[in-house]
Design brief:
This protein has two domains: about 100 residues, no CATH class; about 60 residues, no CATH class. The protein is of the alpha+beta class and about 220 residues long. The strands form two sheets. Strands 7-8-4-5-6-9-13-12-11-10 form a ten-stranded antiparallel beta sheet. The chain contains six helices and 13 strands.
């Protein structure tokens, strides 16, 4: 009986990671997968079909579809950030949550907050979400994407990370999380012991700004 439960647990882990090892659908080539990162000649990068630092939110709508939320997320006493959120991102068998960050100015964000169609506290109670008005949408959609966050539906482990993303340049182990750093790709994979894994993408030129806080703790 003990052997059965061990085998069952092993099978459950393999099935959970299956989309990462075999993401193809009906034998076709799947695009938009989290490890499909293209580093361009100028040192910038593309992920999920988006050119980080060049593509606008309107490009994301054309590539990823309009099943998303567009809002300003602001913690207490902060101006906030403009984000486009895809709660049901899908590429082949792989699914997860995708958040696009922008470099919108504080002045624009303050104005859009004042014009917001509505606002509400998020589930954590620590931040507020401002749903943008239709009148501001044209300007908002022209904002450039500077970062992408992906939270996969499946649980990852080190074996899966190394198999799909390769050997990281550095690993930073902390109390509850290990960061796998890929500066040349502009990627930081945070593997948590208890929480969901988080993959953060920026342009390789901006990677130092993303990773520097890890070395200051």
């Amino acid at each position: 009986m003990k052997t059965f439960f061990v085998l069952f647990a092993l099978l459950a882990v393999l099935l959970a990671a299956y989309p990462f090892f075999n993401p193809s659908e009906n034998g076709g080539t799947v695009t938009g997968l989290p490890w499909q990162i293209e580093v361009l000649p100028d040192g910038s990068s593309k992920a999920f079909g988006l050119h980080i630092g060049s593509s606008c939110l309107s490009d994301a709508l054309a590539i990823l579809g309009n099943d998303m939320e567009l809002a300003i997320i602001a913690a207490k006493d902060e101006v906030g950030t403009l984000e486009m959120y895809y709660g049901h991102y899908q590429a082949g068998l792989l699914s997860g949550k995708l958040v696009l960050q922008t470099s919108a100015s504080e002045q624009d964000i303050k104005r859009w907050r004042e014009n917001a169609a509505r606002s509400e506290y998020m589930a954590s109670g620590q931040a507020k979400k401002y749903t943008l008005s239709d009148a501001d949408s044209a300007q908002v959609l022209q904002q450039v994407i500077t970062g992408i966050t992906f939270i996969p539906a499946v649980n990852l482990d080190e074996e899966v990370i190394l198999a799909r993303f390769g050997q990281p340049e550095k690993q930073v182990a902390m109390v509850d999380v290990t960061h796998y750093l890929y500066p040349a790709k502009g990627l930081d994979i945070a593997l948590y012991k208890e929480a969901k894994e988080v993959l953060q993408y920026v342009s390789p030129q901006a990677f130092q700004l993303l990773s520097q806080p890890l070395f200051e703790q």
